[in-house]
């Protein structure tokens, strides 16, 4: 679907219950995303043999992946003592 500005739109229909803007639950909600036509056409080429059935399906997958990777808890870095312990162990095993 295109508009007069040359952008393409993607419609996402959520079949699961989604909390709406005002906190009310709705059974279906549609959201329109506008993207430049060249990007849309590139996405069509990318998904041709990828197993995705549509650009919308691909974009939803990518956005969910992006959000989940950003919200995943980050592993704490090793402390200086832990690093020293690992080095000591590697040295005792002959690796260092």
Task: Considering the chains and any ligands shown, give keywords for the structure.
single chain, 96 residues, alpha+beta, two-stranded antiparallel sheet, two-stranded antiparallel ribbon
What gyration radius follows from the Cα positions, in whole Å?
23 Å
Class by helix and strand content?
alpha+beta
Secondary structure tally: strands? 4
Name the helicity range: 40-55%
Largest sheet: 2 strands, antiparallel
> What order do the strands of the largest sheet run in, or round the barrel if closed?
1-4
Shape: elongated
Number of domains: 1
Q: Encode the helix/strand succession as letters.
A: EEEEHHH
Uncertain segments are 12-24
Task: Kindly estimate the percentage of residues that lie in beta strands according to DSSP.
Answer: 15-25%
Q: What is the straight-line distance between the termini?
A: 61 Å
Number of DSSP helices? Answer: 3
**Whole-number mean pLDDT:** 76
């Amino acid at each position: 679907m295109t508009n007069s500005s040359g952008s393409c739109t993607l419609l996402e229909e959520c079949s699961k219950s989604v909390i709406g803007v005002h906190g009310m639950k709705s059974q279906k909600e549609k959201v329109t995303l506008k993207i430049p036509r060249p990007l849309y056409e590139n996405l069509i080429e990318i998904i041709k043999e990828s197993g995705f059935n549509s650009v919308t399906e691909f974009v939803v997958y990518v956005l969910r992946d992006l959000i989940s990777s950003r919200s995943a808890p980050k592993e704490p870095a090793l402390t200086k003592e832990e690093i020293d312990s690992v080095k000591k162990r590697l040295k005792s095993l002959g690796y260092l």
